[in-house]
Structures are given as structure tokens and as C-alpha cells.
Amino acid sequence: MSALRLARPLAFVLAALLGVAGAAHAKPAPAPPGHGRVLVTRLEGAVTPVMGEALDAAVRRADREGYEALVIEMDTPGGLESTMRTMVQRMLASPRPIVAWVTPGGARAASAGVFLMMAADVAAMSPGTNIGAATPINMQGPMDSTLARKVTNDAAAFAHTIATQRGRNADWAVRAVREAVAVDEQEAVQLHVVDFIAASLPELLAKCAGREWRRNDTRTKFADLSRAPVDRLEPGFRQRLLALIADPNVAYILLMLGFYGVLFELQNPGAILPGIVGGISLILAFLALSTLPVNSAGVALIALAIVFFIAEVKVASHGLLAAGGILSMLLGSMILFRGEVRLSWGIMIGVTLVTALFFLLVVGVGLRARRRPVVTGAAGLVGARGESIERLAPRGQVRVRGELWQARSEVEIEAGREIEVTGAERLTLRVRPASTEDSS
């Protein structure tokens, strides 16, 4: 029993020693791939859902791979208010610090871009750039005074909130919305709209060192990143393609071209090219529409308009179906997108008129041509006159329009007689003797 009592404490001591030794030889957890590095992405062009998707991808990668900071190179004239708000929310909630940089020289952060700059932890500008003019506008036309005041007040309050949260000039942010003021990079620094001017990426990262960024109640300072390796996040093929076609007007035109091509192919089977162009246009249009706030009622009205135009060609409605098609097309185009996304009036009216002319003239001519008598092949010879080459009793050969045909006659016809074609059965013509009255 005494040996057993001594063995137990010795076992505990041995286990503790083995645990310490194992911990000493354990490998440290590998650092994330972005540790000590900086991720850079570029947001250029109008603020659209495509840009929002690119920002979201950059923020997620920076967080997932543990980058020290995310730098956003910016050059935008503004864009959709709804997308801008989503992007601002993503930036404010980013676990990693975000540095927004208007670059290169000649770039700008206008309209919605002002809000994005305000939402960054550090905001900087290159020499020769500008920021401002954030007054909201309606893409479809001027707003009435009540709506304009309501939208402007909402945007001004949002700008004030973001600027206050990031410790920037909230009064100027409100003026940028209400008075559409804009400033260059020198004035922006003096007014504390942005933090500093940087002409290059190393200078930008060097000036970030020691600056404080905050998430909720946690305050953290930037390390010296002037020599940090830089990884660039390039847009994928899908984003590049969407950037080209995500404009609402381009998506609308692609949608109509798709309708035209497919319908023309159905009316003229074997044309091939219209079907190819129409199919590709429809797929691209649906891809673009997947990034835009589409109203299904608008698509249904446009499809109904095309049905009306086709019916007008086939049914004598004295223009009622055509008028209904034009009205349905305009209404569908007006409500095709939800929110502040609108189509240009010029494009809507132009596409509607072209569609009406297309169906009333082009498709109408094609349908009328189908109803005309056949003028080619054996069936096109009905009523034509020729000459019997040999005696028809009841079959034989005849010459019609310089061609030899097998023919059959109900009555006997001597060789050399003038004949008239009364019908066709595959490659055999039905003929009769031509009357002298008809020939005179």
C-alpha cells in the first residue's frame, strides 16, 4: 500500500513534466496570409451594385486573411443612393481599418463618393483631385419641391452622422449635400474633410502610421506600413463584365435587342443570326438585371406590349392593339426598376417607337408576304403556259418557262400544242390545253 501511495504523486509530476515539454516543442499557430500586408482595391466609375459587390469582396478578404489595412483607390462621379448606403454600412462595420484614397490626379469623389470617403477610417487625396457636390438628384428628371426637400434632408442627416462618427467636418458634409459645394485636395485638408494629401501609395501608408481607428469602444493605432508588402485585389471577369452592362439603360437596350432577335428568328426560322444575337443579348440582359432592383410588373408590361404588337399585325384592330402596345411599353419601361434607378426618357421613347415600327412594318411585311401566292417551285407555275414536247396520253413531257417537266393531262394533248398549268403534284404538273380565247 505504501508503494501505491508513492506512485500516484509521482505519476502526476511525470504527466506535468511531459505536458510542459510538449508545450515547449509545440509549433506556434501559423500567421494568416495577410498578416503584415496591405490589401489594395480600386473602385472606379459610377456607384452601382457592381461596385458594392467589389467592396464587399475586398472587405471580406481583408478580414478573412488578416490584412493590416484595406486601401481603396477611389475615382467616382457618384451613383445610386441605395448602393452607397449599403457600402457605407459595410465600411463602418469592417473589422479591418479602411483607408480611402482619391487617386490619381484628376480623379474625384463626387456625390455618393463623398459619403464613402467620410465612412473611411483614414481619408486621403492625391494632388490634383477634388471632392464634394453631394446633392441628391433624380435620374429620371427634376423632383417636386416637397420630395426634393425630403430627400435632401435625409442625405444631409446621413452625411452629418458619418462625418461625426469619423471625427471629420460635419458642417462641410452637410453643405456638400445642401449647397453642392466641392473643394480641391488643399482645401479638403484645411477644412478637415480628409486627413492628408499623399502622392503615392508608400507615402499614403507612411502617413497612416500612428493614426487611430476605432470600432465600437475599441481604439487601435496604425502600425508603420510604409514597407509593408502590398497585394492588389483585381476584379474578376464577372465584375468586369457587369461593370460594362450594369448601367440600367444598357441593360434595357440589351433586353429589347434580345426580344427582337428571338421573335425575328421565330418568324423566320433558319435566319440563325437574329436568334444568336437575340439569345446572347437576353442572357447578358438577365445577368445585368440580376444586379439591379428589377420590378417584375415592368417586365410583364413590356412582354405584354410585344404580344399586342404581334396581334396588331395579325388582327385588324384599327390601331387599338398598337396603341395598347405603345402604352404598355412606356409604362413597363417607367416602372422596370425600383427605387431611384430610372431609365432615360429619350431611350424609353426611342425604344418604344422603334419597337412599334419594327412590328408594324418589318414583321407585318413578313406576314403579308406569307399570305401571297407562291411564285417559286412547281406550285409557282400554276397559271403559266408552255408547250407539250410529246403526246400526253395522259402523261408526257412539257416545256414551261424554258424548263422540262413531267406532266399529266385529263384529256389527250398532241405534241407541239400550247398547254396551261393547272396544278402541281410534287414534281409532276397537271396541265390542260390552252384555250384560244385565253391566248387571244
Describe, in plain words, how this protein is organized in 3D.
The structure is a single chain. By secondary structure, the chain is of the alpha/beta class. The chain contains 15 helices and 16 strands. The strands form four sheets. Strands 8-5-3-2-1-11 form a six-stranded parallel beta sheet, with helices on both faces. A hairpin with a 6-residue loop joins β12 (385-388) and β13. It is elongated, with a radius of gyration of 38 Å. It starts with a helix and ends with a helix.
What's the CATH superfamily of the largest domain, by name? 2-enoyl-CoA Hydratase, Chain A, domain 1
Number of strands: 16
Number of helices, counting only DSSP H or I runs of 4 residues or more: 15
Could you say what the CATH topology of the largest domain is called? Answer: 2-enoyl-CoA Hydratase, Chain A, domain 1
Return the CATH class of the largest domain.
Answer: Alpha Beta
| Range of strand content | 15-25%
Q: Note the overall shape.
A: elongated
Structure characteristics:
440 residues, alpha/beta, 2-enoyl-CoA Hydratase, Chain A, domain 1, OB fold (Dihydrolipoamide Acetyltransferase, E2P), 3 domains, 6-stranded parallel beta sheet, 5-stranded mixed barrel, 15 helices, 17% strand, elongated
Structure summarized in a few sentences:
49% of the residues lie in helices and 17% in strands. By secondary structure, the protein is α/β, with parallel strands linked by helices.
Write the layout of secondary structure elements.
Elements: H1 2-25, E1 38-44, H2 49-64, E2 69-75, H3 81-92, E3 98-102, E4 108-110, H4 112-119, E5 122-125, E6 130-132, H5 145-165, H6 170-178, E7 182-184, H7 185-190, E8 196-197, H8 201-208, E9 212-215, E10 218-221, E11 230-232, H9 237-245, H10 248-267, H11 273-289, H12 296-314, H13 320-334, H14 345-371, E12 385-388, E13 395-400, E14 403-409, E15 418-425, E16 428-433, H15 436-439
Parallel strand pairs: 1-2, 1-11, 2-3, 3-5, 4-6, 5-8, 14-16
Antiparallel strand pairs: 6-7, 9-10, 12-13, 12-15, 13-14, 15-16
Helix pairs in contact: 2-3, 3-4, 4-5, 5-6, 10-11, 10-14, 12-13, 12-14, 13-14
